[in-house]
Amino acid sequence: MGRYCQLVMGPAGSGKSTYCSTIMTHCQNIGRPVHLVNLDPAAEKFEYEPSIDIKDLISLEDVMEELQYGPNGGLIYCMEFLMNNIDWLEDEVGSYTDDYLIIDCPGQIELYTHFDIMKRLVEALTRLNIAICGVYLLESQFVEDKSKFFAGVMSAMSAMINLEIPHINVMSKMDLLPKMKASELERYYNPDPLLLLEDVNAKTSPKYHQLNQAIGQLVEDFNMVAFLPLNIKDEDSITAILSHVDNAIQFGEDQEPKEPEDEGEGEMDDDY
User: Fold this and answer.
1) Among the listed ranges 43-57, 134-148, 172-186, 247-261, which one has the minimum average pLDDT value?
2) pTM to 2 decimal places
3) What's the confidence (pLDDT) of residue 218?
4) Which of 24, 37, 203, 219 has the highest count of CB atoms within 10 angstroms of its CB?
5) What's the rounded Cα separation, in Å, for the pair 132 and 137?
6) Mean pLDDT in the chain?
7) Closest CA to 66 of 55, 82, 77
């Protein structure tokens, strides 16, 4: 059997922990062995107890207290400490040879755009022969502020380019978004640069219009970012996202199909 994981990323407040618990529940319901890995040294409450927890190695609270660091500097210190002691994580992950891992990452955007920490983490997991899919979350409320939405698109694109792994983007908290027409939402699922120009140019000084146009053109030229909607109250939505992840990392393709123990008795097992 292969080894697989989801690397769950996104800005603070995007719903990463909720996403992780939702996928954990779904995987358990379909009979897939799954474990939560917490790599956020500031995380405190979990719906599922992590099987692997960075706080067993180092915690943000201890770093802030002992080194007098602020939250952001302390988090970077914790992640660098993890990478300098990567053998700890390799040993912890090594005990889960056949299970599916959901890795909950910190929400500081700098980790995905300004530092090479997450890139080094991906390289370490790859050395362990783990197939990785990046899952980048952006909360759906961003569509109500187009400048914030396109900032999120740029961050997602940066993570995709920096990490160079199979990757999907998820628009989270769709159950909290005011009702919008499907045709209007489609412009956000596949970001339409005209959204930026139509709205932001009307609110900003003309001296920024050329910059807005350049950003829109960059998104259009790369044509990398598209979003899958996630409504945690809709099982079909959850199933669709897991299916996209499984396809990206070719989950289960190396597993042999199960057969009935006795010919003519029972049915084929359709578990993952």
Assistant:
1) 247-261
2) 0.88
3) 83
4) 37
5) 16
6) 88
7) 77
Element (H, E) at 254: none
Task: Decide: 257 and 268 in contact? Cβ < 8 Å.
Answer: yes
Q: Helix, strand, coil: what percent of the chain each, to 5?
A: 50, 15, 35
- For the chain, the first-to-last Cα distance in angstroms comes to 12
For residue 175, count other CB atoms closer than 10 A to its CB.
Answer: 13
- Give pLDDT tens digits for 87-108: 999 999 987 877 899 999 999 8
Q: How many CB atoms lie within 10 A of CB 270?
A: 9
Residue 39: predicted pLDDT:
96
Only one residue has tokens 């500031």, namely 42
Conformation bin of residue 53: beta by default, left when phi > 0, alpha when psi is -120 to 50: beta
Q: How many CA atoms lie within 13 A of 189 on its CB side?
A: 11
- 56: DSSP letter: G
